[in-house]
Automatic annotation (TrEMBL):
Chain positions covered by the region annotation Disordered: 1-22
GO annotations of cellular component type: cytosol
Gene3D superfamilies assigned to the protein according to its UniProt record, in alphabetical order: Nucleoside phosphorylase/phosphoribosyltransferase catalytic domain
Designated name of the protein: Anthranilate phosphoribosyltransferase
The species this protein was found in: Digitaria exilis
Length: 502
């Protein structure tokens, strides 16, 4: 919908890159920092947080010590955040599940040799021969599920062991994925755990955006949403991020990992998240599924053992763990065709004022500034967006009492004045992702900076946020939040405040 991006835009920003004054010896914080650990001086990599606008005086006040402690306490690679106590699935059976549990149009049948190897693995596991890598209950096949059903039916049976419930639930989730869940089934998944902890708290904010990033994170490219939230909070667009520290099948970088690495408290209750949303020095919050919805968090291990993303991976993006007195919006990422309309349907059922689904990089929310190749694969391109919002005219749908207008658009960053740049690769490195994001919030121009600006401004514009009707104005507002140092201060403040909320 080209009208969303009018009028024509000028060239790239004329904002000059700031000069960075060298820090005095002993005060420098960069990629090589000296730390005292156990009475000895050690040289190690630190976070590149002193960028263009970062002054040592306020950086220390804003929580630099927490950052330094976070680096020592937490690992820097996303794989390391996998909970230690989770038993690993059997690799042979998992590989087979990856082939046959993809969906009706993508399933790849097993060859005879592989099928026999899988059956032999299951048999040896049942006989107790595979001590180090047994086949788990969640990985068992058709015959085992038949036995489970006989054990638990009819209703009223005394059977209720963990083994039975895991096997049955795994079979159910796998079957749902293979048969492609219906809209009614997705609604059930979405609403099943609403009010699990009671009615959601209501934040006294004028605008709140719920961010639905894929819970299993990024494994290749820069993940920008945490930094986008800090930018948008600077001008009153409160943002609620939700997810987990680590999630299969990708086990990639998440907002939970980044915040934990920096020393923030990532175990907030919804009420505590509400407090942070209302705080003038924060304005955004991250909610861990472990606190927000314990039943869903409890099946992380099961999700690893069924290999493919279950239907829950779609519906969990569209949650409202906190509500707002003002305007509410939702954003969710997707990759596979066929999930765009169901996500928007679920958002409408949440009765939000605006909804946006984005085909970002890796199926996440981050739009790219990289120009699309002429040889790009078929299907919806990266930067494809569709959604609905409160209209400025009367030609709109009012099925649930909220008037809305729909839109579809492919965001072309070059038409918006951005130079085409390759997306920064992080390759599961939490530290690398933080270095890129923090340097960008400090004013360092480049690919990460451009992506944060683009994603903040386009969210404002497409969701119909106040003051973002003109895309040029929205872009300038996002840049000002960064170049003034406000966004970086917000993030540093959040780290400290997250430990003080009650």
């Amino acid at each position: 919908m080209n009208s969303l991006l009018r009028p024509p835009l000028p060239g790239p920003s004329l904002l000059a890159r700031r000069r960075v004054s060298p820090s005095p010896a002993g005060e420098r914080v960069g990629l090589a920092a000296v730390v005292v650990v156990g009475g000895r001086r050690r040289c190690r990599r630190g976070l590149a947080v002193v960028a263009a606008s970062a002054a040592p005086s306020w950086m220390e006040e804003a929580g630099l010590e927490l950052l330094e402690e976070g680096v020592r306490r937490n690992p820097s690679v996303s794989d390391s955040y996998r909970p230690v106590g989770l038993p690993r699935p059997n690799a042979t059976v998992l590989e087979a599940q990856a082939r046959v549990c993809t969906g009706p149009g993508q399933t790849r049948p097993l060859g005879e040799e592989q099928a026999m190897r899988v059956l032999d693995t299951i048999l040896r596991s049942a006989m107790g021969e595979l001590k180090e890598e047994p086949v788990s209950s969640a990985q068992l096949g058709y015959e085992e599920v038949q036995c489970v059903l006989k054990d638990i039916l009819p209703i009223g049976s005394s059977s209720g062991s963990t083994v039975v419930s895991e096997a049955l639930l795994a079979a159910f989730l796998i079957g749902q994925r293979m048969n492609r869940e219906t809209d009614r089934e997705l609604k059930a998944y979405c609403l099943a755990f609403d009010d699990e902890l009671g009615p959601p708290p209501i934040a006294d904010v004028k605008s709140l955006t719920h961010y639905g990033e894929p819970y299993d994170g990024n494994t290749r490219f820069f993940r920008s949403t945490l930094f986008v939230a800090a930018v948008r909070a600077c001008y009153g667009e409160s943002c609620l991020l939700h997810g987990v520290e680590w999630m299969p099948p990708k086990g990639g970088i998440t907002e939970g990992q980044m915040l934990k690495f920096m020393g923030a408290n990532i175990h907030l209750s919804p009420t505590q998240a509400k407090t942070l949303l209302e705080d003038e020095n924060a304005g955004f919050a991250f909610l861990n599924l472990q606190e927000a919805c314990p039943p869903l968090y409890s099946i992380i291990s099961l999700r690893e053992h069924i290999k493919k993303r279950p239907p829950l991976a779609t519906s969990e993006k569209v949650q409202q763990f906190v509500r707002a007195r003002g305007r509410e919006s939702m954003i969710a990422g997707f990759y596979h065709e066929g999930y765009e309309d169901p996500l928007l349907m679920l958002m409408r059922r949440r009765t939000v004022h605006a909804g946006l689904v984005v085909k970002g990089e890796e199926g996440a929310l981050s739009m790219t500034t990289k120009e699309r190749s002429a040889h790009a694969s078929k299907g919806l391109p990266v930067n494809h967006c569709s959604g609905f919002r409160t209209p400025n005219n009367i030609n709109s749908s009012e099925a649930d009492g909220i008037p809305r207008e729909s839109f579809r658009v492919i965001v072309n960053a070059q038409e918006l004045g951005f130079e085409s740049t390759e997306t920064p690769r992080t390759d599961r490195s939490v530290l690398k992702n933080l270095e890129l994001g923090l340097a960008a919030l400090g004013g360092q121009k480049g690919a990460a900076y451009d992506r944060i600006v683009l994603n903040a401004a386009m969210a404002d514009h497409l969701l119909g946020c106040s003051g973002a009707e003109d895309i040029n104005t929205a872009l300038d507002r996002a840049r000002e939040a960064i170049d003034s140092g406000k966004a970086l201060r917000r993030l540093m403040s959040y780290i400290k405040i997250s430990h003080k909320v009650t």
